[in-house]
Amino acid sequence: MSNSIILFENDNHKFIYLGVEKNNLEGIFTNQFLVIHNNEGILLDPGGVHVFPRVLANVSEHIDTKNIKAIFYTHQDPDVSSGVALWSSTLENAKIYISGLWERFLPHFGVFDPSILVPIEDKGGKIEFSDGTNLEIIPAHFLHSLGNFSLYDPISKILFSGDIGVGVVQPSENNIFVENFNDYKKHMEGFHKRYMASNAAAKKWVERVSRLDVEIMVPQHGLLFKKMSI
Q: What pTM was estimated for this model as a whole?
């Protein structure tokens, strides 16, 4: 039975959290997400090889895999992208969106067909659905990767922040949201001080996303942030 959670839903649009691991074998616990618009799907950081069966099963409960049109990767870390060869061989119609800086490294993960790659320019870009609706790719370079992006969904008003906002905590099916930021920040400080050493880069990103209407921020690890808890 899937433990995925629908974070937003209207008549033609969904933003779905694809659940958590039910054991402690993963080491680094990761969050995966799926956006569905008019029965077209976009996967966000679907994760490494060992989470592939669980994530695929959860995705398949919401959409036929032939309708996944894109996979978006925030950056190149193995916990984010090492399952890319499995996904590219499973999803017959999906393009892979990743920083142009990391395009040449994908053969090391088993992806050899350049025609399925969409290298993201440093300035960001968009992922567009068939009706013209799009998701906004936001530069987040050096936070922590030198070719790094966040993704904003203007319909759900959800910001996928990647490693920004990460908390190093065990996952929970009972509570996926931060309830008290002052209590939670102790799980964030060590990671951010170690991996995001540039205040200039952090301020640039904050300046960009502060212009957006964000109801929920979802990082790639740890708990999620509702507007009232940010």
A: 0.94
